[in-house]
Amino acid sequence: MTAIMRNTDLDSPDIWQARVDLAACFRGAARLGLHEGVCNHLSFMVPGRDDLFLVNPDGWAFSEITASRLLICDFNRHVVAGDGVPEDTAFYIHARLHARIPRARAAFHTHMPNATALTMVEGDPLVWAGQTALKFYGRTVVDHDYHGLALDESEGDRIAAAVGDADIVFMKHHGVLVLAPTIAKAWDDLYYLERACEVQRLAQSTGRPIVPVPAHIAEATALQMRHEGGRDSPKLHLDSMKRQLDRDAPEYRQ
């Protein structure tokens, strides 16, 4: 069983920075309407640990999250730092993802409207027709087996098994999962995924046929977006959001 650590062991500068960065993602998602009431969850493995993760407490909206309000939990549902408890589905989805998929240091799950809408229709969610969508070319999977709420480990394990090598999971009839090695990468993908889905939905609403990008160009463009000549676009994106929050809502850092 995971050893319970003293809170003083969880106060390193790296852990506090992770708290601040994750809190900024909650606030940014709230600003952009990517949240749903007091549901949905963003989590991140505690820096330097493979058995503890940061997650939002039950009953708090994304717009209320601060760095210190985030919980640290183990995979047995013990809260080892913070006040409150994780929401049931938050625990069973995120604990199982982090336990079974080591590369998923960050796991962002939302019911953001445009991406969720595309989980409800026939066919593949994304049509590779817009440049923003090409960011996700070759990186997505669809979990077709919706079984209702994730209220036990078996459903969390089923979702984790459905991920495969994907970074983006369209959960049929439900929402999306974004998995990433860093908070900044998860934020960047979450933001651009919703933008890609929004643009596609607008194009489909015209009733005119959508013209996909040829597969070889889509693949080449996706590779360009992953490398960008060494430019760390996800970090720059998160830094931009933090600057906006520092100006308008600096309490997220508390």
* The CATH C-level class name: Alpha Beta
Per DSSP E runs of 2 or more residues, the count of β-strands stands at 8
State the CATH architecture: 3-Layer(aba) Sandwich
Spans of at least 5 consecutive residues whose pLDDT stays below 50 are 1-6
Main sheet characteristics = 8 strands, mixed
Count, helices: 8
* Mean pLDDT over the full residue set: 94
Number of domains: 1
Global outline: globular
Distance between the termini: 31 Å
What is the multimeric organization of the chains shown? single chain
Fourth-level CATH superfamily: Class II aldolase/adducin N-terminal domain
> Roughly how many Å is the radius of gyration?
18 Å
Structural category:
alpha+beta
Percent helix range: 40-55%
CATH topology: L-fuculose-1-phosphate Aldolase
Strand residue percentage: 5-15%
Spatial order of the strands in the main sheet?
4-3-2-1-5-8-7-6
Question: How would you describe this structure in keywords?
Answer:
alpha+beta, L-fuculose-1-phosphate Aldolase, 8-stranded mixed beta sheet, 8 helices, about 40% helix, disordered N terminus
Describe it.
This protein has 254 residues and is an alpha+beta fold. The chain has a single domain (7-253), classed as L-fuculose-1-phosphate Aldolase (3-Layer(aba) Sandwich), CATH 3.40.225. It is built from eight helices and eight strands; from the N terminus they run αββββαβααβαββααα. It has helices spanning 13-31, 88-100, 113-117, 131-134, 153-163, 183-205, 215-227, 233-248, and strands spanning 41-45, 52-55, 71-74, 79-81, 106-110, 140-143, 168-171, 175-180. A hairpin with a 6-residue loop joins strand 1 and strand 2. Helix 2 packs across helix 5 (153-163) and helix 6 crosses helix 8 (233-248). The chain is globular and about 55 Å long. The two termini are 31 Å apart. Residues 1-6 have low confidence and may be disordered.
